[in-house]
Design a protein that fits this description.
binds magnesium ion, binds adenosine-5'-diphosphate, single chain, 15% strand, 22 strands
Length: 725
């Protein structure tokens, strides 16, 4: 018996998934695994866990688990479901990499897919759970794919042992053949239940021309026009990244300033809009048949600030602080129009209420990896037709809507139909190690929904062998056998220890070696810092205005000075960028890790909090593998001694040994493109130390690096000097 408030009751009844409750629960009873497809916003994530709960799936002391590919979704959905069910967060809880509120009373547990994978390592049968829901399966994130493969084995095992578990795979699109038609995955295809979303029609307006560069500018003009000319209703703009999101937010706030008190009344704004429509020759919106195609000419949208029609502009992207993210679910201040500038996060995982207009730039930012060299770069590319349609669908949740595509229909016609599964696009050494630890020796035979390429699997096994995590394959026998052996190397004890650390294999190796010379606290701090995204403020960020320019220059100088201080002196200088990270972590902890300290020191607060949590988690993991070392997190960590620095550099080399670069020399230097450049074994192209690196001036002969990112040049990130052999 769930005690829901009348408002919640009423809102639930409007969700299409509720009409399917009986069908879904009957299918769950009769099948070990089922697939549920339904448009974003149809109520899958918030309601299906409740169906299971009410049908008694959490009553025998076991839990209902739901996995999400994104942390944002795991946290916000757990809060939402707790609220709907009128239950405390001790009962409807969440667990993400660094934090959670799970208790022994938890009955419904939202988690990221990575968290469930770790749990499978501890208990392959997942005995704590009576049902697992894999949410957002259409996103085809790597962990989701692996989980589905593993669960296709776990579910029958649980049945055989007489303690059945149910698997529910949920997808926002109908494209689920990779799961249902894959005989290796499910011998009997699981039934697919379609939830017919009450989706209102969305009129698509294509641009006639496609802006090749300035799509943010185009998004600005289009949003201005919508706001000036079209009836009330929220606007959702899709851009590709954080910087774009902020720049558009700033421009829109400037154009339609919103201050408490300057809200227009409904009557006023309606009159103004009518006048503008007439002026623009678009006719009367009240006709019901009005032409809402705004055209792509930017000239008729003036840029003068207009405070009479305030726009309530909010950013939304995954690195945004949670309390900022939560704002998008709340109604905008009365008399304003809601306008959300978002990245892909808003495409399927979060449903924002009240959106009537979508502006879609048609692009997406993705990380690309070179298959041979591992060099990665973020590139903005066209999205797929399926994604573009998902985005458009966001406009038709509450009433008929409009989607403005900032590209032509011909360009749309050239988009790929679907986005590729992530597993085919990135290195897989972390997955291979996790799978070996689960005693899946022949990873090639694993029932992947979409298998990674054999090259990627071979490269992963080779790296793991070189790190000592897997046994060397025998080099005798026929070529064919040797090749097969290369893909089925057994895991070593070191590999098992590495697999228990929640970081990628190269970093896990460093942790495993950290015992020497009391270096562990430093190794833990450095690894934590290396694996958290973007901890430093970008010193190359352009000034937002003329006035800011001189202030920003001062700030740059001050922050550069501070980083120099963190880099230390003498021997520690050779640790390079890693020493800066260590110094930053030490200084931040010493100051109590406050938002103020971070702001003053050019550190991203959220990243520093993550590092702090990860240090705690890694410390526990190391103690679990190796209790005799007894490490603890010391908030007043003193800088490493000279001797420890030497040791740290060796440890870093052991982890990043395959990321070695040597200063270009000899004949190479004749060609100016090799000036100050480095050579790596796998690439013909020169790579460089970034001007912001601690080692930019030193240019040591040999360095190891964390990764190579291609921006204006091939730059190494996280560089540290090593001795010549
Ligand atoms: P699906 O998983 O099918 O995309 P959801 O279960 O996420 O659908 O959403 C169902 C409804 O619940 C949506 O209309 C959405 O607006 C609403 N909703 C979800 N989370 C929140 C929240 N935190 N606050 C208010 N409404 C929410
Ligand atoms: Mg959902």
């Amino acid at each position: 018996p769930v005690d829901r408030s009348p408002e919640v009751q009423e809102a639930r009844l409007k969700l299409p998934v509720l009409a399917e409750e009986q069908v879904i629960m009957e299918a769950v009873r009769e099948n070990p695994s089922i697939v549920i497809c339904g448009e974003t916003g149809s109520g899958k994530t918030t309601q299906v866990p409740q169906f299971l709960y009410e049908a008694g799936y959490a009553s025998d002391g076991r839990m209902i688990g739901i996995t999400e590919p994104r942390r944002v979704a795991a946290v916000s959905m757990s809060h939402r479901v707790a609220k709907e069910m009128n239950l405390p967060t001790q009962v409807v809880s969440y667990q993400i990499r660094y934090e959670g509120n799970v208790t022994s009373d938890t009955k419904i547990k939202f988690m990221t897919d990575g968290v469930l994978l770790k749990e499978i390592q501890k208990d392959f049968l997942l005995q704590k759970y009576s049902a697992i829901i894999i949410d957002e399966a259409h996103e085809r994130s790597v962990y989701t794919d692996i989980l589905i493969g593993l669960l296709s084995r776990i579910v029958p095992l649980r049945n055989k042992k007489g303690m059945p578990m149910k698997l529910l795979i949920m997808s926002a699109t109908l494209r689920v053949e990779d799961f249902t038609e894959n005989q290796r995955l499910f011998r009997t295809p699981p039934p697919v239940i379609k939830v017919d979303a009450r989706q209102f029609p969305v009129t698509i307006h294509f641009n006639k021309r496609t802006p090749l560069e300035d799509y943010t500018g185009e998004a600005f003009h289009k949003t201005c026009k919508i706001h000036r000319m079209l009836p009330p209703g929220g606007i959702l703009v899709f851009l590709t990244g954080q910087a774009e999101v902020h720049s558009l937010c700033r421009r829109l706030r400037k154009a339609f300033p919103f201050r408490k008190g300057n809200t227009a009344t409904g009557e006023q704004s309606l009159k103004m809009r009518k006048r503008r429509l007439l002026e623009a020759g678009i006719g009367d919106e009240e006709d019901g048949d009005s032409d809402l195609d705004l055209g792509d000419d930017p000239a008729d949208a003036e840029e003068k600030a207009d405070g009479s029609i305030p726009l309530y502009v909010l950013p939304l992207y995954s690195l945004l602080a949670p309390e900022q993210q939560a704002k998008v679910f709340r109604p905008p201040p009365p008399g304003t129009r809601l306008c959300i500038i978002a990245t892909n996060v808003a495409e399927t995982s979060l449903t924002i209420p009240g959106i009537k207009y979508v502006v879609d730039c048609g692009r997406v930012k993705k990380r690309f990896y070179d298959k041979v060299t591992g060099v990665s770069s973020f590139k903005v590319t066209w999205t797929s037709q399926a994604s573009a349609n998902q985005r458009a669908g966001r406009a038709g949740r509450t009433e008929p809507g409009h989607c403005y595509r900032l590209y032509s229909s011909a360009v749309f016609g050239d988009f790929t139909l679907f986005s590729e599964a992530e597993i085919t696009r990135r290195p897989v050494e972390d997955l291979v190690l996790q799978m070996k630890d689960l005693n899946i020796e022949k990873v090639v035979n694993f029932p992947f929904p979409t298998p990674p390429s054999t090259e990627a699997l071979v490269a992963a096994e080779q790296l793991l062998v070189s790190l000592g995590a897997l046994e060397e394959p025998p080099c005798t026998g026929r070529l064919k056998d040797m090749q097969r052996a290369k893909l089925s190397c057994p895991i070593t004890p070191l590999g098992r220890a590495m697999a228990s650390f929640p970081v990628a294999p190269r970093y896990a190796k460093m942790l495993a070696l950290g015992k020497q010379q009391d270096c562990l606290p430093y190794v833990i701090a450095v690894v934590a810092a290396m694996t958290v995204r973007e901890i430093f403020e970008d010193l190359d960020r352009p000034a937002r205005s003329e006035d800011e320019s001189s202030k920003l220059n001062q700030r740059r100088a001050r922050l550069t000075q501070m980083r120099r201080l963190w880099a230390g002196q003498g021997a520690s200088l050779l640790l390079g960028d890693l020493m800066i990270m260590l110094g930053a972590v030490g200084a931040c902890e010493f100051a109590g890790c406050t938002p103020r300290f971070c702001e003053n020191s050019g550190l991203r607060y959220k990243a520093m909090v993550e590092i702090r949590k990860l240090r705690g988690q890694l410390t526990n993991a190391v103690n679990a593998v190796c209790p005799e070392v007894g490490v603890f997190v010391d908030p007043k960590m003193t800088p490493p001694t000279e001797h420890q620095v030497v040791c740290l550099r060796q440890i870093v080399l052991a982890g990043l040994g395959d990321h070695l670069a040597r200063r270009a020399q000899g004949e190479d230097l004749v060609d100016p493109k090799w000036k100050n450049a480095y050579k790596t074994p796998l690439m013909d192209e020169p790579v460089f130390i970034h001007p912001n690196s601690a080692l930019f001036k030193t240019l040591p002969e040999f360095v190891v690096y964390q990764e190579i990112m291609e921006t204006s040049k091939m730059y190494m990130r996280g560089v540290s000097a090593v001795e010549a052999e």
